[in-house]
Amino acid sequence: MAERVSIFVEGAPSAFGHFSQVIKHGNSVHISGQLPVDPKTNRLVSMEIGPQAKAVFENLSKIMQACAGQMSNILLTRIYLTDLRDHSAVDVITREVFFFTPPARTVVMVAGLPFGAKIMVEAVAELNPIEMAPKRVF
Fold first, then answer.
1. pLDDT by residue (tens digit) across 64-100?
2. Which of 20, 68, 81, 137 has the fewest CB neighbours in a 10 Å radius?
3. Rounded CA gap, 113 and 107, in Å?
4. In Å, what is the CA distance from 132 to each residue of 17, 71, 74, 115, 135?
5. Residue 118, domain member (yes or no)
6. Can you tell me the distance from the alpha carbon of 85 to that of 118, in angstroms, rounded to the nearest whole number?
């Protein structure tokens, strides 16, 4: 049976509360919801959705790198938004981040997020023994 390991990534925001930042189980990686906070200050990067979305995906990328993976290993994202009108702006950023075959995605509107954030993203990834280069589809 695969071992369940809690991982802490120094370059990404720490967990706020009693939960793991990342759980690795076998080749699967389960990443807790990432907020748009600067890991050095633990404060929001901006009050605008564009910079917030970019920061969330930068934090996810740092976590994937620390887990010996890359963004193309992400199979599923769950995006939590406080305002569904921000969906289009977030979609533009996700197209830049996931320029290869995008992961499955769920978008959920929530009443509020910690620190007054407009977005939070959690992810599930599978680390492949042999990495394949992402393909760009035009």
1. 999 999 999 999 999 999 999 999 999 999 999 999 8
2. 137
3. 14
4. 36, 12, 13, 37, 9
5. yes
6. 11
Outline where the chain has alpha helix (H). 49-66, 87-97
Question: Nearest Cα to 42, choosing from 16, 17, 66, 13?
Answer: 13
Question: DSSP character for 94?
Answer: H
Residue at 135 is within a domain: no
Look up the CATH number of the domain holding residue 49: 3.30.1330.40
Residue 134 confidence class, pLDDT cut points 50, 70, 90 = very low
Q: Is there a domain that residue 137 lies in?
A: no
- Name the domain count of the chain: 1
Contacts of 29 (CB under 8 A, 6+ apart): 22, 23, 63, 64, 67, 69, 73, 123, 124, 125, 126, 127
Contacts of 10 (CB under 8 A, 6+ apart): 39
| pLDDT-derived band at 119, boundaries 50, 70, 90 | very high
CA dihedral 73, 115, 17, 2 (to 10 degrees): -10
